[in-house]
TrEMBL record:
Residues 48-105 are annotated as: Disordered. It comes from Sphingobium xenophagum. Gene3D superfamilies: Aromatic compound dioxygenase. InterPro entries: Intradiol_dOase_C, Intradiol_dOase_core. Residues 54-87 have a biased composition (Low complexity). It holds the Pfam family Dioxygenase_C. Residues 131-206 form the Intradiol ring-cleavage dioxygenases domain. This is Protocatechuate 3,4-dioxygenase beta subunit. It comes from the Bacteria.
Amino acid sequence: MTTIADAHDHGLIHDLSHMSVLSRQAIGRRRTLRLLLSAGGAAMVSACGSSDASGSVETTSSTTTTTNTTTTSTTGTTSTSSESCVTDPTETNGPYPADGSNSVNGSVVNALDDNGIVRADIRSSFGTASGTAAGIYMQLTITVVNVNSGCAPLAGYAVYLWHCTRDGQYSLYDIPGENYLRGVGVTDANGQVTFISIFPGCYAGRYPHIHFEVYPSLARATTYANRVLTSQLAMPTAACTAVYATSGYTSSRSNFSSTTTANDNVFGDNTAAQIAAMTPAMTGDITNGFTGSVTVGLAI
């Protein structure tokens, strides 16, 4: 049996040898500690660099760009996703909004309070009107987000969308007997609302575009006074070129050749970031139609 005295009383030679071993072990431990601290410091620098890149907020004039990185942990799994959004600028609702803000022949034009305006497919008229707008099929999904809350989706918001025919005319104004190419939709839990329509034409003096207004709820989407944003979308150049080459868009072809977003009287004063955000990403062709998506940013 070894006692405490046995462990500490073996003479000077034993003690010197034992101290040498302890010294080597201490050096080894210090070397290991330095390696661990070095690796840890590199990891911290890397992590800080990643955080700065993914959590930036950039403001240029009236443009706010928010980039958000979210890490979600499930059982044994960690996934990271990033998204960015830009505050959409306010634009004119133009002379043909039918939102209660103007009149035609002395009568206020407001399609927002009409039964039937809430619909996904806006190609046909509703109510007592029965016409259908001709043109190439287009499906557009709009995602409404809050740029002040990490691009969080805004559910329950109402979006009123309208645009011209393939000949550049507007229902209820140029075509008073029809109300097609107008509709209201409500965003879902993902902040999304989808419309089915035709690809809009291009008329003289304007770049091809789609008008829209955002309201805080469907109940309040009855008059323009309740809107939280009025703006426009710029149609993608490649899709315009393909669509306007078809026989049904003859007038649009010549009008489009002389206009750009830069010389347009609405889009011309926007930043490059704003124009990019206001232009839907679109795929498809003239045979099967086009499908697009765009994010609309509100600063709430």
